[in-house]
Amino acid sequence: MRKYKWKSILALALGTVMLLLAGCSKNAPENAPNNAAAAGDGGEKVISVWGLSDFLKGDESPGQRMIAEFNEKYKGKIRVEGRYMPAAEYNTAIQAAITSNDMPDIFQTPSGSDIRTFVANGQAMPFDGLVSDTWKDNFVPGSFAEGVNVIDGKTYSWPLTGPQLNYILYYNKDVLSQAGLDPEKPPATWDELTAMAKTVTDKGKGDVFGFVFGGGESGVTNFVNAFAAGVAPEESGGFNYKSGKYAYDGKATLDSFNLLQKLKQDGSILPSSYTMKGAEAATLFGQNKAAFLIDSRARMWLVKRDTPDAKFGLAAVPTPGGSKPTYYYVPANPTGYMISASTKNAKEVGTFLENGFTGPMFYEKYLNSGVALTPIESINNNASLYPYPEFDTFIQLHKDLLKVRPDYAVRNPLTAQVIVELGSIDQPKIKPGFNDILQSLLSGAQTDPQAQLKAYTDKLNKGLGDAVDKVKASGVNVGLNDFAFPNWDLAKDYTADDYKALK
């Protein structure tokens, strides 16, 4: 992997993103307000933590319970004050804090920005020297990557969660039983799924259906991507990291959309699915109005919370032949919690991070909440922390179905400039978007899925090429090859050695 001088590169590369921080000073002056001022005569140090993650929301949240435990343990020495804010409020508050040189000691990257923005602006302090030399060893392999959360060899954050499985088949056991189907045998193939959904719908007599989803948000896209992984996993999500090209018109997407159309034609989809939100779909699933729901890892604890009497199971999303699908993720993340460059209590911040926020004191509570896995494998494997029986299957599905994919940001951090041009790899500037096209095709307003999706794919590939050419013309060393990983073995995790082999 190549090495780069980040402060000069990212000031240019992330110029668009840094509009969020317009007018803010790069470094806090010596007389800046002391956010972590010592109480009394320099005894107890007060550390402020701001974030938009739900795990800090409310006294019973994993984050606030961790803070309370840490404060008790370090009473008289360190006191942490955690503050949760919704995203819009948080983004405004952070911008105001930077402008007034009154940043919290620890802060989360706002929406629309990332770690590299703050490092380039001189607003973040590295963890190195504040945590132990063995601190990184606690996390899953690949959690720290140059150009992502490590800049010029210095560490600025950590992955907040472990692997996240975005596609799970949730099946309602009571609904299956009432339709005369085996509640302990979910469908493994597409044919089994359509047959079981049709049986449930026929016996439901207009009150209970085979399938429900939140089509009013991105439910159609989620459905198609979930099933596409069983046809060609490298095409699921639309961008093929093996070829470095978009593949929305590939066999995986087309076959998956045809499956959705078949379920619709059979009448197996709860009719309001096409306009409702994901939370509404999950509630109806929990209220025994549908047998099947495709949703992410977060839906499990929400169904438990909102419809606690629901009896449901979790399984891999069915595939054409019954084999297991494969999904991909990247362990290092360019967003997360950082240390403010203006903190007055760096040593105490390091103590809190290592012994509280990034350790068992927090992550055991986080896993026990049932929301997601942690980035610490030993905690994930501690069955005594599992909140309910379904969590065993939840853990196993993550282990069985997820692999690490290649990341263009790791291969060449200068691709950040291309992504700024595009808005994201999904190119949100190109309208209509993928979900809009699928919705239009599903409603019958448009026909010929192959032609519609090919036209969309061609626009995206042209957009990527144009963005690369524009950035390259400014003297930046990037190319389309930076987005292609021909040595990617889809059945294995992509490793540091694989990146090296590309040279």
TrEMBL record:
Alphabetical list of PROSITE patterns matching this protein: PROKAR_LIPOPROTEIN (PS51257)
Organism: Paenibacillus sepulcri
InterPro entries membership: Bact_solute-bd_prot1 (IPR050490), SBP (IPR006059)
Keywords: Cell membrane, Lipoprotein, Membrane, Palmitate, Signal
Alphabetical list of Pfam families matching this protein: SBP_bac_1
Signal sequence residues: 1-22
Superkingdom as given in the UniProt entry: Bacteria
Coiled-coil residue spans: none
Protein name per the record: Extracellular solute-binding protein
The keyword Flavoprotein appears for this protein: no
PANTHER family: ARABINOSE-BINDING PROTEIN-RELATED, POLYGALACTURONAN_RHAMNOGALACTURONAN-BINDING PROTEIN YTCQ
Entry annotated with the keyword Acyltransferase: no
